[in-house]
Write a structure and sequence with these properties.
- This protein is mainly β and about 80 residues long.
- The protein has a two-stranded antiparallel ribbon.
- The chain has 1 helix and 4 strands, in the order βββαβ.
- The protein has one helix at about 30-35; strands at about 15, 20, 30, 60-65.
- The two termini are about 15 Å apart.
- It has a domain at about 15-65.
- The structure holds iron/sulfur cluster.
- Iron/sulfur cluster (SF4) binds near residues 6, 10, 13, 63 and 66.
- This is DUF1540 domain-containing protein.
- InterPro entries: DUF1540 (IPR011437).
- It holds the Pfam family DUF1540.
């Protein structure tokens, strides 16, 4: 499988790295609604069990894997830094 490169400008995220790179081993992009409704533990590690959440514009999506770099909850979702 081809290595994906995820670029991100949210530099206060735990998974952000120099050059606007995301260094999470996996992420979950979802609708804003799912992001607001589901707890932090619901993330890329549980993605196979989630129903699809279609949206109409990019403005309605979010990175569910975001966690602030200074948060005590960086390990709640099971995602790892590469
Ligand atoms: S986890 Fe999401 S918000 Fe955080 S650096 Fe990666 S893409 Fe950006």
């Amino acid at each position: 499988m081809t290595q994906q490169h995820i670029h991100c400008t949210v530099d206060n995220c735990h998974y952000w790295a120099q050059g606007n790179k995301c260094v999470a081993n996996e992420i979950l992009v979802a609708s804003d609604q799912l992001g607001a409704d589901q707890p932090d533990r619901i993330d890329a590690t549980t993605a196979q069990n989630l129903n699809p959440t279609p949206v109409n514009t990019c403005m309605s999506t979010c990175c569910k894997s975001f966690v602030a770099g200074n948060s005590p909850n960086t390990n709640v979702d099971g995602i790892k830094k590469q």
